[in-house]
Design a protein that fits this description.
Radius of gyration: 19 Å
Structural class: alpha/beta
Largest sheet: 9 strands, mixed
Strand order of the largest sheet: 5-4-1-8-9-10-11-12-13
Oligomer: single chain
Bound molecules: adenosine monophosphate
Shape: globular
Number of strands: 13
Length: 308
């Protein structure tokens, strides 16, 4: 059992109040792959330039990620720069240099085409549709997107969303996508387009999962130390889909557990710069974090007579 991911692999320059890193391994597909690799085998399809350091390739390989679909082309690797203040939900993008990523045409290796689980990270929706055409119909498919595509390519994005089982986006994106300010109504509209589940990420404030059966909300876990939230959303997606794909459990209980594993991976990611924490986790750290969420959200009903 494996999951195929298509998206960005990048070199990131990141600055937070706690330090900075230059040319660090980043990219949505990178974070997703690392997080998902604790649950299931991962097949990565992405593009990088010849400047992409061998040490980063080795790091991805160290988690057993299948790199047959990682294309090396002439030109520079996608570079992204971001800066955070103490409000980690607000970040400033300093630059986006697409480099080789601008011409990215995902080529799904023959050995990946029957993979039963597919995650389309944030790329042009036309490419997301193209990937879905290249693979045999997966059992589980999901996509992420961003404001940029919601504004510029709404028709192609809608066509891609109609074809996947799960949409994973931020709350502001969900509202913008549905053209509906109330999250619950926005979710109902998006689910009407076809996806079975909608996962709304709310940064430090947790996540909400919507399905026809109902809603599940997880608060943000107050962490002892947030160092760098870059990649938390993609790590969430990796934990969420990694668990769902590995367990095959799409019941409401399975969906809830997936939401907690996603939250666990997203929160662990924030505790160090870039990929530094999620590249080297012990399984018990993920389980401990899962239990922490359980304790955080547990309460018991003690009926009292309310003053009528
Ligand atoms: P997140 O913090 O989950 O939004 O993910 C941040 C990662 O997304 C960084 O490692 C960036 O390299 C990558 N990224 C930033 N902008 C884009 C973009 N326009 N397309 C694809 N990936 C991006």
């Amino acid at each position: 059992m494996a999951i195929l991911v298509v998206g960005s692999v990048a070199l990131d320059d990141v600055e937070t109040p706690f330090g900075r890193r230059e040319s660090a391994l980043g990219g949505a597909a990178t974070y997703f792959s690392l997080a998902a690799s604790y649950f299931i085998d991962v097949q990565l399809v992405a593009v990088v330039g010849r400047d992409f350091p061998e040490s980063h390739v080795e790091l991805l390989g160290s988690r057993g990620i299948d790199l047959e679909g990682l294309q090396f082309v002439d030109g520079e690797t996608f570079r992204w720069g971001g800066k955070y203040g103490y409000d980690f939900n607000a970040r400033e993008t300093l630059f986006t240099h697409l480099g080789a990523f601008a011409e990215f045409q995902p080529q799904i290796p023959a050995s990946f085409r029957k993979t039963p689980n597919v995650f389309l990270a944030n790329i042009h929706p036309r490419l997301q549709l193209d990937v879905l055409e290249q693979v045999d119909r997966p059992l589980l498919s999901a996509l992420d997107t961003m404001n940029y595509w919601i504004e510029r390519t709404p028709v192609e994005l809608r066509a891609a969303i109609e074809k996947v089982d799960i949409l994973i986006i931020n709350d502001s994106e969900a509202r913008m996508l549905a053209g509906e300010p109330m999250l619950r109504q926005a979710a109902a509209r998006i689910l009407d387009w076809g996806p079975e589940f909608l996962v709304v990420k709310k940064g430090e404030d947790g996540a909400v999962t919507f399905s026809k059966e109902g809603i599940f909300a997880v608060p943000g876990l107050p962490l002892d130390s947030i160092v760098d939230p870059t990649g938390a959303g993609d790590s969430f997606a990796g934990g969420f889909l990694g668990y769902l794909a590995a367990s095959g459990d799409r019941s409401s209980h399975g969906l809830r557990r997936a939401t907690i594993y996603g939250s666990a991976m997203g929160s662990l990611c924030c505790e160090a710069f870039g990929t530094e924490k999620i590249v080297d986790l012990e399984p018990h750290e993920i389980e401990d974090r899962f239990q922490e969420y359980k304790r955080l959200t547990h309460f018991e009903h003690a009926p009292i007579l309310l003053n009528a």
